[in-house]
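Q: I'm building a small set of examples for a reading group on sequence design. Run inverse folding on the following structure and report the sequence directly after it, with nothing in between.
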């Protein structure tokens, strides 16, 4: 086994880079309502989409960022992934094998340039440390530098790692994900993994617009993610920074016990990613959001959705309207972030196409007239409501926005408003990004709201 000479040099480097720097407060939960994020001192709703998920590997990422920002977007996902030999891997080669003690400058230069470009545009980057699918099937057997057959640093016997694994990641049977203390405590592989994470942090800790997810759709033992969450927070603290970490689990049902390891443990995970709920739809999708929001009510944290899918499970072909419904539903469900998944063959999303851009613009238009950060989810104020007919955000007694996914008619209880108050209502056509003329309403005792037609409509109601 080749001796590890890397030591703690990277930590010394990024501690020096960050020590004494006058950073503006970057991404963090907004102190006044920690269900939402704050960025650069202001509460911020994160909306996004992009053509790729390991965006630093995409040569046109600057144009993607510009397209995103132009329509009002401000968040991307970036997995630390490589799909095959056409995209660089993080380690340099010695002959035809990787050397885990040396890094590949091309990989890290791309990552550095993405972080800098996103920072200049005030775009938040949610970084996923371990790209799960790279550690199974061809990603592991043919390409991955941590595979003992593909590096000069350890053998299968020394590392306990297989040279092939053809299983789907849901099997969670690659010992690569069992190396941490408290599990197998693999003292051969773990230092190499830590070296990789240290390298990631040597770039990300220079910026204040980065969030961290441990894995993608993981089925690994919870000890794995918890170790890396603690590791990253500790290293950041040593560099004088506070960071925010989460885990992304594979089950679609947010009540699954794996999700509870994130939802119920704010001491480990200081925000929540519920991307897999975006395989659900309609009322079931929204009810799951309510479950999480209510479960964390005593210790509120931001709820992120870094992947919004455009398919139903088991079906083929993209359904843009379904993706847009989930995207809008996340906002009306009180989430802090929602982002369209990539449109590639395995991505099942719409990326940043015209439908995605229109959805982002539409939500920004609503929020220009409504203070979402001081609102709460108040679907209970809607009466005579059918399943999945309408959803309500309310600034109690002052303002309400009622979103209709496909037309409909409900009664709004303007609870908290003075008796005999008058109201002004205005309809927004989300499909065409167009406002209708305002009109006056009186509560008797409810406010009737009937969407002007089919399609997505939002009623903005204000106390006069």
């Amino acid at each position: 086994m080749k001796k590890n000479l890397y030591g703690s040099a990277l930590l010394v480097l990024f501690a020096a880079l960050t020590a004494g720097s006058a950073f503006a407060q970057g991404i963090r939960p907004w102190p006044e309502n920690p269900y939402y994020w704050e960025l650069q001192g202001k509460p911020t709703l994160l909306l996004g989409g992009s053509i790729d998920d390991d965006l630093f590997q995409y040569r046109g990422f600057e144009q993607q960022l510009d397209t995103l920002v132009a329509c009002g977007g401000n968040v991307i996902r970036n997995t630390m992934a490589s799909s095959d030999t056409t995209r660089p891997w993080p380690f340099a080669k010695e002959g035809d094998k990787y050397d885990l003690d040396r890094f590949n400058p091309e990989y890290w230069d791309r990552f550095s340039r993405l972080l800098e470009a996103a920072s200049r545009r005030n775009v938040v980057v949610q970084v996923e440390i371990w790209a799960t699918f790279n550690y199974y099937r061809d990603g592991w057997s043919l390409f991955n530098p941590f595979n003992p057959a593909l590096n000069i640093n350890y053998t299968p016997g020394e590392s306990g790692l297989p040279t092939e694994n053809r299983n789907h990641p849901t099997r969670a049977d690659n010992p690569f994900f069992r190396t941490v203390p408290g599990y197998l405590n693999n003292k051969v592989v773990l230092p190499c993994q830590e070296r990789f994470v240290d390298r990631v942090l040597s770039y990300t800790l220079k910026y204040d617009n980065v969030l961290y997810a441990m894995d993608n759709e993981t089925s690994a033992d919870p000890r794995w993610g918890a170790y890396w969450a603690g590791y990253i927070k500790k290293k950041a603290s040593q560099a004088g920074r506070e960071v925010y970490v989460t885990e992304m689990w594979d089950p679609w049902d947010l009540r699954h016990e794996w999700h509870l390891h994130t939802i119920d443990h704010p001491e480990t995970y200081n925000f929540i990613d519920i991307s897999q709920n975006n395989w659900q739809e309609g009322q079931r999708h929204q009810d799951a959001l309510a479950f999480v929001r209510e479960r964390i009510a005593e210790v509120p944290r931001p709820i992120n959705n870094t992947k919004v899918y455009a398919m139903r499970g088991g079906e083929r072909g993209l359904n843009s309207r379904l993706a847009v419904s989930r995207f809008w539903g996340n906002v009306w469900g009180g989430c802090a972030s929602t982002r369209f998944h990539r449109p590639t063959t395995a991505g099942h999303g719409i990326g940043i196409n015209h439908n995605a851009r229109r959805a982002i613009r539409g939500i920004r238009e609503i929020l220009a007239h409504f203070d979402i950060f001081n609102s709460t989810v108040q679907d209970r104020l809607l009466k005579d409501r059918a399943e999945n007919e309408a959803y309500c955000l309310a600034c109690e007694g002052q303002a309400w926005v009622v979103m209709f996914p496909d037309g409909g008619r409900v009664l709004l209880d303007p609870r908290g408003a003075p008796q005999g108050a008058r109201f002004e209502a205005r309809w927004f056509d989300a499909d065409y990004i167009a406002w209708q003329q305002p009109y006056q309403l009186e509560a008797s005792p409810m406010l009737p709201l009937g969407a002007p037609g089919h399609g997505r409509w939002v009623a903005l109601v204000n106390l006069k």
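The first helix runs from residue 9 to 18.
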